Automatic annotation (TrEMBL):
SUPFAM superfamilies in UniProt: Dimeric alpha+beta barrel (SSF54909)
InterPro entries (alphabetical): ABM_dom, AI-2_Isomerase_LsrG, Dimeric_a/b-barrel
A Gene Ontology molecular function term of the record: catalytic activity
Source organism, top-level taxon: Bacteria
Protein name: ABM domain-containing protein
Every ABM domain range: 4-93
Pfam families: ABM (PF03992)
Length: 98
């Protein structure tokens, strides 16, 4: 079974810091409860606290697809979208070295 790892990035529109932090913390708690989730770590850049990086690891592609199908995902994304600078989170899929 191959793990599915990714980095999700977005930048908060100034003035929305508190609301985004609340949304992300609530969403993170839900994702961490998913059986196939191995990591959902939320970071902001020290040099720019409006820039979020979320490191995600799922046990498999199937676990990742289950995550994408979760009913709380679309409402989270809909609430987040107007609060960030990008149209949506930028996803970078990762491969382990070696």
């Amino acid at each position: 079974m191959n793990k599915k790892s990714l980095l999700a990035e977005f930048t908060v529109r100034p003035g929305n810091e508190e609301r985004v932090a609340e949304l992300v913390q609530d969403y993170a708690a839900r994702v961490r409860e998913e059986p196939g989730n191995l990591a959902f770590e939320v970071y902001t850049k020290k040099s720019n606290p409006l820039a979020y990086w979320i490191f995600e690891v799922y046990a498999s592609e199937a676990a990742f697809q289950t995550h994408l199908a979760a009913p709380y995902g679309p409402p989270f994304n809909a609430a987040l979208q107007p609060l960030i600078q990008e149209k949506e989170s930028l996803l970078t899929f990762l491969s382990p070295l070696g």
